[in-house]
Amino acid sequence: MLALVSILSLALSLVLSGCQTISGSSGVSLLRIIDASYNAPSLNFYVGSAILAGNLGQGSITDYASLTPTNNAVVKVTATTSTKALVSSNTSLLAGTSQSALISDLSSTFEVTVLEDQATPAPSGHSEFRLLNQAPSTGAVDVYFLAGTSNTVFATAKPVITGLAVGATSGYVTIPSSTLYMVIAPTGTTLADNVPTIYTSAAFPLVGGEVRTVLIVDPLLVTEPVQVYIADDVN
């Protein structure tokens, strides 16, 4: 699980006292922030007039905050040094839902896209993953979940997600739970141990019920093909 950015302050009129609640709680709306921006300075994220999360950088994913439901919440992103909006939009914060506000700047302008998150555990014996491709230099990708990384495993490997385009968000995919490796490769790659992949994870010891969101971005200062951030949606 990636390092989570501290929530600096909670909206006085929107956020319920006490704060963190479990996903799917019927009386509140849960919202977290995912920062996939490349050109932005450190960012603050507002709901209404109050900062929900501050000092965000690329790859930041906050904890869920518990908000009072509303059909017309104004969300705004600013630089930490300014209150001028880089982007703002209106969204619904519905009771009993979990959502992610994705900050991106793949085009020439900043965008905030509110995604509906899975709020209940995956079925018994299964795990669910969703991929966000925010890596413009990398291009479209295929995603595999494999029992190993040998040529024997690669010979029969089939991608769980195929051709995930830049800027696209996959739906949640359900896989049988076991100890697995996540492999990300350019779309159409034939896997082999002498063929470079974009990303190969350490082993995931999945026991069932897990729900995860995976953010893929191009690296800013490092030489790896991509940076991958994994967040817990449930369990």
Relevant terms:
Immunoglobulin-like; mainly beta; 19 strands; disordered N terminus; 235 residues; 2 domains; 5-stranded antiparallel β-sheet; 4-stranded mixed β-sheet
TL;DR?
The chain has one helix spanning 151-154; strands at residues 4-5, 29-35, 43-47, 50-56, 61-62, 65-67, 70-79, 85-93, 98-104, 111-117, 126-134, 141-146, 161-164, 173-176, 179-186, 199-200, 204-205, 211-217, 227-234. With 235 residues, the chain is mainly beta.
Question: Would you kindly provide a written description of the structure presented here, covering whatever features stand out?
Answer:
The chain is an all-beta fold and 235 residues long. The protein has 2 domains: 4-117, Immunoglobulin-like (Sandwich), CATH 2.60.40; 126-234, Immunoglobulin-like (Sandwich), CATH 2.60.40. It has one helix at residues 151-154; strands at 4-5, 29-35, 43-47, 50-56, 61-62, 65-67, 70-79, 85-93, 98-104, 111-117, 126-134, 141-146, 161-164, 173-176, 179-186, 199-200, 204-205, 211-217, 227-234. Strands 12, 13, 15, 16 and 17 form a 5-stranded antiparallel β-sheet that branches. Strands 6-2-9-10 form a 4-stranded mixed β-sheet, with no helix packed on it. It has a 4-stranded antiparallel β-sheet with strand order 4-3-7-8, with no helix packed on it. It is globular. It starts with a strand and ends with a strand. Mean pLDDT is 88; it is low at 1-24.
